[in-house]
């Protein structure tokens, strides 16, 4: 197993994804990163990525597969790319992230967006190459627990029978939340010979804490940095958000 992490912080002015409108990046609270964990059995290799952005568009994913293949020789069936879903990361497509921008501003924003995408693709390829170079014999173990009281469901059944997202804290028209949060925390511990250990952590909750117009990996970035500090820098953390969008 090998590990690599690269900086994917975009140029200032890049549209930030996450909301329905134009938000050009004007600062950096903390860097955006792409983390890659490489697995090999000596015959075949798989590359597993977690990337600090809201989502990656299909065409950028296709470009990343091609770039990774050229850099590492690993085909697309061996490459898994997940997003942490931070709402303060770079957009990878126009979508609704340029709503409200005038034509001249939109043209400049699209040019910056293109630069950010080029950076993202090349850095994903770099991370794959670096992770393979870091391969070392390893033993894997798996643990599972819970993190209670951190998450809540944002989708509510209202008293009139309708369903509403974020109807407001204490809204008297709320009947009940639709569903329950998945509070499971999962850990893959990878002990490597002659290398730092790796902690692959999985939890599921919508990362929309920061807001504003500064770049940030939001709480997934905070979580992995906190884990690494708690382990005195002897453990490398890759954090994977789960698929539970209404949590």
Number of strands: 13
- Secondary-structure element pattern, one letter each: EEEEHEHEEEEEEEHE
Question: Which class do the helix and strand fractions yield?
Answer: alpha/beta
Span between termini? 32 Å
Evaluate the radius of gyration.
19 Å
Mean pLDDT metric: 96
Overview of the molecule:
The protein is α/β, with parallel strands linked by helices. Helix content is 24%, strand content 30%. It has three helices and 13 strands, in the order E-E-E-E-H-E-H-E-E-E-E-E-E-E-H-E. It has helices spanning 58-72, 103-133, 218-230, and strands at residues 2-7, 27-28, 33-40, 45-51, 79-83, 138-146, 155-158, 163-165, 174-177, 184-192, 197-203, 214-215, 235-241. The chain has a four-stranded mixed beta sheet with strand order 1-3-4-5, covered by helices on one side. Strands 6-10-11-13 form a four-stranded mixed beta sheet, covered by helices on one side. Strands 8-7-9 form a three-stranded antiparallel beta sheet, with no helix packed on it. Strand 3 (33-40) and strand 4 (45-51) form a beta hairpin. The protein is globular.
What are the SSEs and their pairings?
Layout: E1 2-7, E2 27-28, E3 33-40, E4 45-51, H1 58-72, E5 79-83, H2 103-133, E6 138-146, E7 155-158, E8 163-165, E9 174-177, E10 184-192, E11 197-203, E12 214-215, H3 218-230, E13 235-241
Parallel strand pairs: 2-12, 4-5, 11-13
Antiparallel strand pairs: 1-3, 3-4, 6-10, 7-8, 7-9, 10-11
Helix pairs in contact: 1-2
